[in-house]
Amino acid sequence: MRPTSQTAIPCLFMRGGTSRGPFFDAADLPADSDARDLVLLAVMGSPDKRQIDGLGGAHPLTSKVGIVSRGSQPGVDLDFLFAQLQPDSDKVDTTPNCGNMLAAVVPFALETGLVDPQGRGEDAASTFRVLTLNTGMQCDITVQTPGGLVSYEGGARIDGAPGSSAPITINFLDTAGSVAGSLLPTGKLREHIDGVEVTCIDNGMPLVIFQAADVGRSGYESVEALNADTELKARIERLRIAAGHAMGLGDVTTKNYPKMTLIAPPRAGGALSTRSFIPHVCHDAIGVLAAVTVATACKLPGTVADGIAQMPAGNPVTVSVEHPTGEFSVELETDPADPQRVTRAALLRTARLLMRGEAMVPRGVWAGKEGA
């Protein structure tokens, strides 16, 4: 390649679930977190609502970055750091998890040689344990590796992403209290905060769940209508800030959590209907770990979902969470002796490598390893 006046950083651009963004080997980025964040802002083109000078897609779901390295702990194959950027903000948030981007971690690692396939036969699959550095959460991720190559073609479908692909299964090992410290950070199954009855819960993602009717909405509005509903968004933000303090998260004004989830009775054969704000924009679907957390609220007697969720019997149980573009199924198992302890949360995702190459940043942002 010809010399360039910019710093070139090896990168794979990947879709993970219903999100997408650039993935990097941690060794190719600055070790210092402040310098790394400046690089990521330059890569994505933030702050700018169009992200016209970067790779971002002008939406929170396409303003995400994955950073992967070999495992740093015994028994862990890969470390994953998720970074959430916003189009019009200069903040890089590495506090929350992202289960959608998580689906692309093992494909990225296999594509870049961070791990080797465990099988090469026609029906081979490879399973690796991944530690999410954001919260310390671990999971086992299985991808299809026929012939020793990551397979992206298959019949698995997920709502919110077009077409079909090879299945990727994620088995979360311990998600309760991922950010807020406990499954029920306020110690209550339901309570009134800022005049609204809510359940504050964190089983992979801190959520404030409340019935749409309690804020004067049906819960079946379109994403476009909710994003244009300035009165509702102001009401939800006031509730979010109050709930953040109640959950022990401090002042969440500039944070990307807790997410806010409106619920209503199901309309399409699922357990219940959702509209999820992430936190200021209504999600076109629902986040992976938000779906896990909503499903958990459906399974726990006494939450705000109790009485409107249509739950199948059994343990484990598959909970279908309806969202604006379809549904998200989560398999949950709880401890029979302690129904508030979730022992297993598993789900299906897909991912695809979209592009490989180099992300370019001005040398004024970072001169690269040789200039660090």
Account of the protein in words:
With 372 residues, the protein is α+β, with helices and mostly antiparallel strands. It is 16% helix and 34% strand. It has helices at 33-44, 99-102, 105-112, 223-227, 230-246, 288-299, and strands spanning 6-16, 19-25, 64-70, 78-85, 92-93, 125-132, 137-144, 168-172, 191-193, 196-202, 206-211, 259-264, 272-277, 317-323, 326-335, 338-349, 351-362. The chain contains 6 helices and 17 strands. It has a 17-stranded mixed β-sheet that branches. β15 (326-335) and β16 (338-349) form a beta hairpin.
Largest sheet: 17 strands, mixed
Total of helices: 6
- By DSSP, the count of extended strands is 17
N-end to C-end Cα span:
22 Å
Residue share in helix: 10-25%
Main structural class: alpha+beta
Strand content: 25-35%
Mean pLDDT: 95
User: In one word, what is the shape?
Assistant: globular
SSE order, one letter for each helix or strand: EEHEEEHHEEEEEEHHEEHEEEE
Evaluate the radius of gyration: 20 Å
Poorly predicted segments: none
Set out the fold topology.
Elements: E1 6-16, E2 19-25, H1 33-44, E3 64-70, E4 78-85, E5 92-93, H2 99-102, H3 105-112, E6 125-132, E7 137-144, E8 168-172, E9 191-193, E10 196-202, E11 206-211, H4 223-227, H5 230-246, E12 259-264, E13 272-277, H6 288-299, E14 317-323, E15 326-335, E16 338-349, E17 351-362
Parallel strand pairs: 2-3, 4-6, 11-12, 13-14
Antiparallel strand pairs: 1-2, 1-17, 3-4, 4-5, 6-7, 7-8, 8-16, 9-10, 10-11, 12-13, 14-15, 15-16
